[in-house]
Amino acid sequence: MEQDTQEAQAAMVAGWRASWHEHPHEFDAASWDALTSNLPGGAPFLKHAFLCALIDSGCATPSTGWHPLLLALRNEAGTLLAACVCFAKTHSYGEYVFDWAWADAHDRAFTSQGQRYYPKLLCAVPFSPITGPRLLVHPELPAATQAAARQALLAAIRELTRAQGWSSAHLLFLSEADTQAVQAGEASTPSEAPHWLLRHGVQFHWQNRSPSPYLDFNDFLASLHRDKRKKIKQERRKVQECGVSFDVMEGAQISQADWDFFHRCHTQTYLERGRQPYLNRAFWHLVAQGNPDNWVLFVASLAGERIAAALLAVDRTTGTAYGRHWGALQTVSCLHFETCYYQPLQWCIEQRMQAFEGGAQGEHKLARGLLASPTRSAHWLAQPALHQAVANFLLQESQGMQGYMDELDERQPFKAMDLGAGGTQG
């Protein structure tokens, strides 16, 4: 039966041509963007303009360890029907799914044989830990053809990895559809061949109440346990009593001076950690031009002087906001919480947004109304010995992750009535 399914899927994409490209400029923007329309996590992070900005600004290029490799599937008429954003990576920075230990184990075992972990093939959006589609397929294709196209993309990724002699291929922050594709491909892979290994992680996301969205921030607070509500009020009061005020700018309202200030704050935060930011000023200039409607900027001021900023990426089609970057030039108690969580949440409620994703990691977000949300990545390792070692590790890690998720669920900050028939959270 599995063999029959494989043959049927292959027949659906027979005649389609796979090709690899080194820049989004090799694609028509409208044709590319048609693959990402109305998909959670697709806008702005997979839009043609965003990908061009990453490369044209010099942020994701071979000189920074990111060699762009965009995979395309076209039919006999040359129509773009599926694609995948990949990079040949010479390090593991900017990914947010950590495989440094795998790289070390690989090189200790195989360097003497002339094999190194890097370069590897990565399918992800640079510097963006956002769950979304990685195997892009035209949404108007029949469901069975979409499934076949995803398998064809996965096969092309494995084929290139083998042909180049690379150690591995990795797909990060997978959508549900892509996860199912990986699992379906795994089920049809011969037992003796390396297959995709799934890895589970966790982020913290806020979901608006359903079916009755929150009326305002106070309505949201009322849904929390008393101790959590009290803590948030205390934190917000500290910022207010210091005299901090906020301006919120959306889309074209964000001027070049505003972007300059945001980048200054963003850079300062990285420098305080002893690092340079991944994203430079040229990148923000390009995305402000290419995707202006996808950004909301929160600027904090004290005594008439701007002191901090936080940036949201927004997808109004799906009603999702993504916390991206923040920075501060002065230290004010609880300013981080106010700028990065409370102001964005207040805006999301006012705008009737459905969700707010708070970025990578951060268990402290749980007490502020962002619940644990699972993330998934898939990994293909060419060396059988390393594949088995990582498989054993991931089995133990997934068991621990499930226990951690159960613990987080027990600590959820919402009253039981706000998780029952009257509405859902997370």
Question: Which features would summarize this protein structure in a list?
Answer:
Aminopeptidase, about 425 residues, 13 strands, 2 domains, alpha+beta, 12 helices, disordered C terminus, 13-stranded mixed β-sheet
Structural write-up:
This protein is α+β, with helices and mostly antiparallel strands and 426 residues long. It is globular. The two termini are 37 Å apart. Helix 9 (256-272) crosses helix 10 (281-290). It has two domains: 2-195, Gcn5-related N-acetyltransferase (GNAT) (Aminopeptidase); 206-370, Gcn5-related N-acetyltransferase (GNAT) (Aminopeptidase, 3-Layer(aba) Sandwich). It has helices at 2-12, 29-33, 48-56, 100-110, 143-164, 176-187, 217-222, 226-241, 256-272, 281-290, 335-350, 384-410, and strands spanning 17-21, 66-74, 80-89, 120-123, 136-137, 168-171, 197-207, 244-250, 295-302, 305-315, 320-328, 355-360, 371-381.
Span of the ends, CA to CA: 37 Å
User: Structural class of the helix and strand makeup?
Assistant: alpha+beta
CATH 2nd-level architecture of the largest domain: 3-Layer(aba) Sandwich
Return the string of H and E elements.
HEHHEEHEEHEHEHHEHHEEEHEEH
| CATH class term of the largest domain | Alpha Beta
Beta-strand level of the residues, as a percent range?
Answer: 15-25%
CA gyration radius, whole angstroms: 22 Å
Please provide the count of β strands: 13
Report the CATH topology name of the largest domain.
Aminopeptidase
* Mean model confidence by pLDDT: 92
Please, how many domains? 2
Number of DSSP helical runs: 12
